[in-house]
């Protein structure tokens, strides 16, 4: 897997323990997904963030899954989801006990090949409604561990069809993740609330799933309001609490991620890519893309052709 990192001038506070630098990691994944065994012994580190989906499947020793404003304790067997654009790093609890984990990086575009595949992305985008930690004691974490180890073994042996086998294992991992999130959602009563007093609304998850499936189309906000059973202001407030973005920001983010994939992995004209991603105006597409990546779509494509 090839990648480069780009430092950005941003300071964040880490749980009142001081300030830390955060940098953007511009991952260029050679395939739609990459499995890799990793080791670490850092007790502190700059946080990074990126626009791909990431699993950390903890295999050995205890870890701290560090986010910008929260830290999760990790024990062997745990599975952790790092969401797109969420600052994070994997740290050790004890420098004398290095951690080992299996990393799975995947492009959101991978689900285009899976029936109703966009529903599988909901756990990565419902930031507040679905916990990023799948505990080792759960059947889903146990299954994901087994699947990840099988994927690593497939790549080591490189037997005939190993890449296709890995793809099937990725689908299984995504399905187990979604089912775990769904079970948790079903176990929450309508009266249960987040720390800030916000209720858990399954209808918001339904709206997220709908957007994930239809983001390249013209989405009628009124349809989302009916789906969620909320008025405009309440819907936008709850949606932002759950995803960290407004519905419009969320749609544009998904479109940009799809555009990046097509710019790097196809020879399609930029105008055609814009239309396929839901933009009828090439000027509007170029503006959003430059806001998103700091360069024009043409410049982005050229820079990736060199790598």
TrEMBL record:
PANTHER family: ARAC-FAMILY TRANSCRIPTIONAL REGULATOR, HTH-TYPE TRANSCRIPTIONAL ACTIVATOR RHAS. One of its GO terms (molecular function) is sequence-specific DNA binding. This is Helix-turn-helix domain-containing protein. PROSITE patterns: HTH_ARAC_FAMILY_1 (PS00041), HTH_ARAC_FAMILY_2 (PS01124). SUPFAM superfamilies: Homeodomain-like, Regulatory protein AraC. It comes from the Bacteria. Keywords: DNA-binding, Transcription, Transcription regulation. The keyword Coiled coil does not apply. Residues 205-303 form the HTH araC/xylS-type domain. It holds the Pfam family HTH_18. InterPro entries: AraC-bd, Homeodomain-like_sf, HTH-like, HTH_AraC, HTH_AraC-typ_CS, RmlC-like_jellyroll, Tscrpt_reg_AraC-type_HTH.
């Amino acid at each position: 897997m090839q990648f480069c990192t780009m430092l950005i001038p941003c300071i964040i506070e880490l749980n009142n323990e001081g300030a830390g630098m955060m940098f953007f990691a511009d991952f260029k994944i050679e395939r739609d997904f990459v499995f890799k065994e990793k080791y670490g012994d850092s007790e502190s580190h700059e946080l990074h963030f990126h626009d791909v989906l990431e699993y950390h499947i903890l295999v050995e020793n205890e870890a701290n899954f560090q986010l910008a404003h929260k830290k999760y304790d990790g024990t062997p067997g745990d599975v952790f989801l790092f969401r797109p654009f969420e600052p994070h790093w994997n740290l050790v609890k004890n420098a004398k006990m290095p951690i080992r984990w299996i990393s799975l990086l995947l492009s959101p575009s991978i689900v285009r090949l899976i029936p109703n595949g966009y529903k599988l992305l909901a756990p990565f985008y419902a930031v507040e409604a679905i916990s990023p930690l799948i505990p080792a004691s759960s059947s889903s974490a146990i299954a994901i561990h087994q699947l990840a180890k099988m994927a690593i073994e497939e790549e080591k042996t490189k037997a005939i069809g190993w890449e296709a086998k890995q793809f099937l294992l990725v689908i299984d991992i995504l399905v187990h993740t979604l089912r775990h999130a769904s079970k948790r959602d079903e176990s929450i009563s309508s009266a249960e609330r987040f720390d800030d007093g916000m209720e858990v609304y399954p209808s918001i998850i339904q709206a997220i799933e709908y957007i994930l499936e239809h983001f390249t189309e013209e989405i009628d906000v009124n349809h989302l309001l009916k789906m969620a059973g909320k008025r405009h202001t309440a819907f936008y407030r709850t949606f932002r609490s759950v995803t960290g973005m407004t519905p419009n920001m969320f749609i544009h983010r998904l479109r940009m991620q799809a555009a990046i994939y097509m710019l790097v992995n196809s020879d399609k004209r930029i105008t055609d890519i814009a239309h396929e991603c839901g933009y009828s105006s090439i000027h509007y597409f170029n503006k959003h893309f430059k806001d998103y990546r700091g360069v024009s779509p043409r410049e982005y494509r050229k820079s990736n052709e060199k790598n």
